[in-house]
Amino acid sequence: MKSIVITGGAGFIGNHVVRLFVNKYPDYHIICLDALTYAGNLANLSDVEDKPNYEFVKMDICDFEGVHHLLKDRQVEGIIHLAAESHVDRSIRDPFAFAQTNVMGTLSLLQAAKLYWESLPERYEGKRFYHISTDEVYGALELTRPDGEAPYGDDFFLETTKYNPHSPYSASKASSDHFVRAFHDTYGMPTIVTNCSNNYGPYQFPEKLIPLFINNIRHRKPLPVYGKGENVRDWLYVEDHARAIDLIYHKGKTAETYNIGGFNEWKNIDIIKVVIATVDRLLGRPEGADLDLITYVTDRAGHDLRYAIDSTKLKTELGWEPSLQFEEGIEKTVRWYLEHEEWMDNITSGEYEKYYDSMYKNR
Ligand code: NAD
Ligand code: TYD
Q1: pTM here?
Q2: Which residues are catalytic?
Q3: Is residue 361 predicted with pLDDT exceeding 90?
Q4: Options 3.40.50.410, 3.90.930.12, 3.40.605.10, 3.40.50.720; which CATH number does 2-204+235-263+302-324 get?
C-alpha cells in the first residue's frame, strides 16, 4: 500500500484533499498529519475517520524527530504539504508564528523526508514532495481597468513572475517555496510547488472573508469592509483546488511550478453584495435587507490591491479547468454554511477545541 502524508489535513483545503484521496484511492494509506491549531478541526473529517485507509496523527511539523520517525515507520512515499499559518491579519499581529510553522516547519519536513528517503536503496525513486503555496508570494498587481468588467488589470501572475511578498504571511510562504525548490536543486529531492489563488467553499475557518460574512449576515452583525472594498481577489472553489492537487500529484512534472486559479476576479465589495443577496434570499429575507450591515473600516496594513492568476500552463499541460461557475459555487457555499449552523457555532463558541482535549488527552 502506498503511504501518503497530507499535512494540515484538518484545515480548510486539507480536509477536501484528504477526503478526495481517501475515497478515490482505497489502495493508498492516507495519513493526515495535523497539529490541530485553532484552524484545525477534526469535525471536518468525521465522514472519513472510520475508513480503513485513513489515519490521523496529531503532530507539529516542526517536530523533526517525530516526523522523521513517522515517515520511516509508515514507509511514506509521498508528502502533500498544506500545514501552515494561513491568515494575513494574524500574520500582521504575530509574524513569529508564521516564520515558525511556515518556514521552520517546512524545513523540518523537508529535512525529515531527505533523511528517510536518502536512507533507502532506491533513494528518491517513486517519491514526491508536493508543497502547496499561494499566489500572494508574487505581490500585488495594479488596477488598470478598475471600472470595467473583470479582469481589472492587464497583467496576471505567471509561474515566472518574480516573488515580491508584502505581508508576513506571504513572506513566510515565499521563504518556504524557496526552501522546497532548494531541496530539489541541492539534493535532487523530487519536489513540486503550486501557487493557488483565494479558495472558498465549505469548512473554511470564519476569520476569512466569505465564511465570516455569511455568519455575520446570519446574525445581523456588521460586515467590516477594509478600506474602500476595492481590492480584487481571484476566487476558486475549494474542491476544484483539491482536484488540481490530485492531478498534479500524479501527473505533474518534478521540479515544476504550476499556478492554479479560476480566471474569476472580484472586487471585495461586489462579492460582499453577492453574498448578502444569496444569504438573504436563502433565509427568506427581503431583497437588500442586510446591505446596511456593510461597515467600512480602517484598511489592512500593506493590503495587496489585486491578485490574478494565469493558470494556462496547468490547462495546457495537464488539462485542468475549474468545474464551477462562480454563481453556482457561491450558492453551494452559502447553502452549506446555513445548513451547518452547528459546525459554525461550535467554532465561534470555541467548543470544537474541547473535542480535541477529550479525544487526545490520554494519547
Ligand atoms: P487553514 O488555516 O484552514 O489550515 C491549516 C491547517 O494546518 C490546520 O489544520 C492547522 O491545524 C494545521 N497546522 C498549522 N500549523 C501546524 C503545524 N505547525 N504543524 C502541523 N499542522 C499545522 O489553511 P488553508 O486555508 O486550508 O490553507 C492550506 C494551505 O494552502 C496553506 O499552506 C496555505 O498557505 C495554502 N493556500 C491557501 C489558500 C486559501 O485561500 N485558503 C490559497 C492558496 C494557498
Ligand atoms: P481574506 O479572506 O483574509 O484572504 P486574503 O487576505 O488572503 O486575500 O480576505 C479577502 C479579502 O477581503 C482581502 O482583500 C481582505 C478583505 N477582508 C475585508 O475587507 N474584511 C474582512 O473582515 C476580512 C477578513 C477580509
Answers
A1: 0.97
A2: 135-136, 169
A3: no
A4: 3.40.50.720
